[in-house]
Amino acid sequence: MTLQVVGAGLGRTGTLSLKTALEMLGFAPCHHMLEVRSHPEQVPFWLRAAKGEAVNWDDMFGAYKASVDWPSCHFYKQLAAHYPNAKVILSRRDPAKWYDSMCETIFPAIERAAKDPARPEGGSFVERIVVQQTFNNDLGRDNVIAAFERHNAQVIATIAPERLLVFEAANGWEPLCKFLGVDVPAEPYPRTNSRDEFKQHLNNKS
Fold first, then answer.
1. In the prediction, which pLDDT does 205 show?
2. Rounded to the nearest 10 degrees, how much is the dihedral formed by the CA atoms of 53, 33, 25, 161?
3. 44, exposed or middle or buried, with CB in 10 Å at 0-12, 13-18, 19+?
4. What pLDDT was estimated at residue 42?
5. Pairing mode, strands 164-167 and 87-91
6. pLDDT tens digits for 68-111?
7. Angle between helix 195-205 and 95-104 (nearest 10)
8. What separation, in Å, do the N-terminal and C-terminal C-alpha atoms of the chain show?
9. In angstroms, rounded to a whole number, what is the distance separating the alpha carbons of residues 74 and 126?
10. What backbone torsions phi and psi does residue 52 show, to the nearest 5 degrees?
11. Cα gap 202→199, rounded to integer Å
Protein backbone atom coordinates (compact mmCIF):
# COMPACT_ATOMS: atom_id res chain seq x y z
CA MET A 1 0.00 0.00 0.00
CA THR A 2 1.17 3.54 -0.70
CA LEU A 3 -0.11 6.94 0.37
CA GLN A 4 -2.56 8.23 -2.24
CA VAL A 5 -3.80 11.39 -0.51
CA VAL A 6 -1.75 13.84 1.55
CA GLY A 7 -3.72 16.25 3.75
CA ALA A 8 -1.87 19.56 4.09
CA GLY A 9 -4.46 21.45 6.15
CA LEU A 10 -3.76 22.23 9.80
CA GLY A 11 -5.82 20.69 12.58
CA ARG A 12 -9.33 22.04 13.30
CA THR A 13 -10.02 22.62 9.61
CA GLY A 14 -12.49 19.74 9.40
CA THR A 15 -9.74 17.14 9.31
CA LEU A 16 -11.62 14.40 11.16
CA SER A 17 -14.61 14.89 8.88
CA LEU A 18 -12.21 14.71 5.93
CA LYS A 19 -10.66 11.52 7.32
CA THR A 20 -14.12 10.00 7.59
CA ALA A 21 -15.02 11.17 4.09
CA LEU A 22 -11.83 9.78 2.55
CA GLU A 23 -12.37 6.43 4.21
CA MET A 24 -15.95 6.36 2.92
CA LEU A 25 -14.54 6.97 -0.57
CA GLY A 26 -12.16 4.01 -0.33
CA PHE A 27 -9.01 5.71 0.94
CA ALA A 28 -8.87 3.73 4.15
CA PRO A 29 -7.20 3.72 6.50
CA CYS A 30 -6.51 7.44 6.76
CA HIS A 31 -3.95 8.66 9.28
CA HIS A 32 -5.03 11.37 11.75
CA MET A 33 -3.88 12.42 15.21
CA LEU A 34 -6.43 9.96 16.59
CA GLU A 35 -4.34 7.18 15.06
CA VAL A 36 -1.42 8.20 17.25
CA ARG A 37 -3.65 8.14 20.30
CA SER A 38 -4.85 4.67 19.33
CA HIS A 39 -1.33 3.49 18.48
CA PRO A 40 1.08 4.98 21.03
CA GLU A 41 3.87 2.94 19.46
CA GLN A 42 3.87 5.64 16.75
CA VAL A 43 4.94 8.35 19.20
CA PRO A 44 8.73 7.72 18.97
CA PHE A 45 8.56 8.00 15.17
CA TRP A 46 6.81 11.36 15.32
CA LEU A 47 9.15 12.64 18.00
CA ARG A 48 12.14 11.80 15.78
CA ALA A 49 10.48 13.54 12.85
CA ALA A 50 9.67 16.58 15.00
CA LYS A 51 13.32 16.76 16.05
CA GLY A 52 14.35 16.84 12.40
CA GLU A 53 15.92 13.40 12.47
CA ALA A 54 15.85 11.22 9.37
CA VAL A 55 12.80 8.97 9.20
CA ASN A 56 11.52 6.44 6.68
CA TRP A 57 8.00 7.56 5.76
CA ASP A 58 7.14 4.08 4.55
CA ASP A 59 7.65 2.81 8.08
CA MET A 60 4.75 5.02 9.18
CA PHE A 61 2.49 5.04 6.14
CA GLY A 62 2.98 1.59 4.68
CA ALA A 63 -0.45 0.56 5.95
CA TYR A 64 -2.25 3.83 5.11
CA LYS A 65 -3.84 5.18 1.94
CA ALA A 66 -4.29 8.75 3.14
CA SER A 67 -3.20 11.20 5.82
CA VAL A 68 -4.77 14.33 7.30
CA ASP A 69 -4.34 16.53 10.39
CA TRP A 70 -1.32 16.96 12.60
CA PRO A 71 1.29 15.54 12.80
CA SER A 72 1.45 14.54 9.12
CA CYS A 73 0.23 17.88 7.72
CA HIS A 74 3.37 19.49 9.13
CA PHE A 75 5.41 17.31 6.76
CA TYR A 76 3.26 17.73 3.66
CA LYS A 77 6.25 18.81 1.54
CA GLN A 78 8.25 15.72 2.46
CA LEU A 79 5.25 13.43 1.96
CA ALA A 80 4.34 14.99 -1.38
CA ALA A 81 7.92 14.45 -2.54
CA HIS A 82 8.15 10.91 -1.16
CA TYR A 83 4.80 9.93 -2.70
CA PRO A 84 4.89 11.78 -6.03
CA ASN A 85 1.64 10.25 -7.28
CA ALA A 86 -0.33 11.25 -4.18
CA LYS A 87 -2.86 14.06 -4.46
CA VAL A 88 -2.76 16.88 -1.91
CA ILE A 89 -5.77 18.38 -0.13
CA LEU A 90 -5.51 21.68 1.71
CA SER A 91 -8.42 21.82 4.14
CA ARG A 92 -9.10 25.27 5.51
CA ARG A 93 -11.78 27.44 7.12
CA ASP A 94 -12.44 31.01 8.23
CA PRO A 95 -9.27 32.04 10.13
CA ALA A 96 -11.07 33.75 13.02
CA LYS A 97 -13.38 30.80 13.62
CA TRP A 98 -10.45 28.44 13.29
CA TYR A 99 -8.46 30.34 15.94
CA ASP A 100 -11.42 30.30 18.34
CA SER A 101 -11.70 26.56 17.82
CA MET A 102 -7.98 26.06 18.49
CA CYS A 103 -8.31 28.02 21.75
CA GLU A 104 -11.11 25.75 22.94
CA THR A 105 -9.60 22.43 21.87
CA ILE A 106 -5.99 21.88 20.84
CA PHE A 107 -4.28 24.59 22.88
CA PRO A 108 -5.84 23.47 26.19
CA ALA A 109 -4.98 19.86 25.33
CA ILE A 110 -1.34 20.80 24.76
CA GLU A 111 -1.26 22.83 27.98
CA ARG A 112 -2.62 19.86 29.91
CA ALA A 113 -0.11 17.48 28.32
CA ALA A 114 2.76 19.86 29.15
CA LYS A 115 2.09 19.22 32.84
CA ASP A 116 2.58 15.47 32.43
CA PRO A 117 5.62 14.31 34.44
CA ALA A 118 6.41 11.87 31.62
CA ARG A 119 6.72 14.69 29.08
CA PRO A 120 10.00 14.31 27.12
CA GLU A 121 12.72 16.90 27.59
CA GLY A 122 12.15 19.62 25.02
CA GLY A 123 8.46 18.81 24.74
CA SER A 124 6.26 16.20 23.16
CA PHE A 125 6.14 15.90 19.38
CA VAL A 126 2.85 17.85 19.47
CA GLU A 127 4.44 20.71 21.41
CA ARG A 128 7.41 20.73 19.05
CA ILE A 129 5.34 20.65 15.86
CA VAL A 130 2.41 22.85 16.85
CA VAL A 131 3.65 25.31 19.47
CA GLN A 132 7.33 25.61 18.62
CA GLN A 133 7.58 25.02 14.87
CA THR A 134 4.19 26.17 13.57
CA PHE A 135 3.54 29.09 15.93
CA ASN A 136 7.06 29.91 17.13
CA ASN A 137 6.02 29.66 20.80
CA ASP A 138 3.52 32.51 20.44
CA LEU A 139 -0.12 31.47 20.76
CA GLY A 140 -1.45 35.02 20.59
CA ARG A 141 -4.31 35.58 18.18
CA ASP A 142 -2.47 37.72 15.61
CA ASN A 143 0.56 35.44 15.42
CA VAL A 144 -1.45 32.21 15.21
CA ILE A 145 -3.77 33.50 12.49
CA ALA A 146 -0.79 34.88 10.54
CA ALA A 147 0.93 31.49 10.77
CA PHE A 148 -2.26 29.76 9.62
CA GLU A 149 -2.60 31.98 6.58
CA ARG A 150 1.13 31.71 5.83
CA HIS A 151 0.94 27.91 5.94
CA ASN A 152 -2.00 27.87 3.55
CA ALA A 153 -0.25 30.24 1.15
CA GLN A 154 2.90 28.11 1.23
CA VAL A 155 0.94 24.97 0.36
CA ILE A 156 -0.65 26.68 -2.62
CA ALA A 157 2.73 28.04 -3.74
CA THR A 158 4.49 24.68 -3.28
CA ILE A 159 2.12 22.09 -4.72
CA ALA A 160 1.39 22.01 -8.46
CA PRO A 161 -2.17 23.26 -9.12
CA GLU A 162 -3.23 20.08 -10.91
CA ARG A 163 -2.20 18.07 -7.87
CA LEU A 164 -3.89 20.27 -5.24
CA LEU A 165 -7.45 20.70 -3.99
CA VAL A 166 -8.19 23.64 -1.70
CA PHE A 167 -11.19 22.42 0.25
CA GLU A 168 -13.64 23.45 2.94
CA ALA A 169 -16.09 21.06 4.56
CA ALA A 170 -18.94 23.32 3.45
CA ASN A 171 -18.03 22.45 -0.15
CA GLY A 172 -19.39 18.94 0.38
CA TRP A 173 -18.76 15.87 -1.70
CA GLU A 174 -18.72 17.20 -5.26
CA PRO A 175 -15.30 18.93 -5.51
CA LEU A 176 -13.66 16.24 -3.39
CA CYS A 177 -15.02 13.37 -5.45
CA LYS A 178 -14.23 15.10 -8.74
CA PHE A 179 -10.65 15.71 -7.61
CA LEU A 180 -10.20 12.09 -6.52
CA GLY A 181 -12.02 10.63 -9.51
CA VAL A 182 -14.64 8.74 -7.50
CA ASP A 183 -18.43 8.68 -7.36
CA VAL A 184 -20.39 10.91 -5.00
CA PRO A 185 -21.87 8.85 -2.14
CA ALA A 186 -25.57 8.89 -1.36
CA GLU A 187 -24.84 9.75 2.28
CA PRO A 188 -24.37 13.36 3.41
CA TYR A 189 -20.82 14.65 3.81
CA PRO A 190 -19.73 13.73 7.36
CA ARG A 191 -19.62 16.28 10.17
CA THR A 192 -17.53 15.09 13.10
CA ASN A 193 -15.29 16.27 15.95
CA SER A 194 -17.14 19.40 17.02
CA ARG A 195 -15.64 21.44 19.85
CA ASP A 196 -17.93 19.70 22.33
CA GLU A 197 -16.89 16.27 21.00
CA PHE A 198 -13.21 17.21 21.26
CA LYS A 199 -13.65 18.42 24.84
CA GLN A 200 -15.51 15.26 25.78
CA HIS A 201 -12.69 13.14 24.36
CA LEU A 202 -10.15 15.22 26.27
CA ASN A 203 -12.12 14.88 29.51
CA ASN A 204 -12.37 11.13 29.03
CA LYS A 205 -8.56 10.90 28.91
CA SER A 206 -8.12 12.72 32.23
1. 46
2. -50
3. exposed
4. 97
5. parallel
6. 999 999 999 999 999 999 999 999 999 999 999 999 999 999 99
7. 20
8. 36
9. 10
10. 85, 10
11. 5
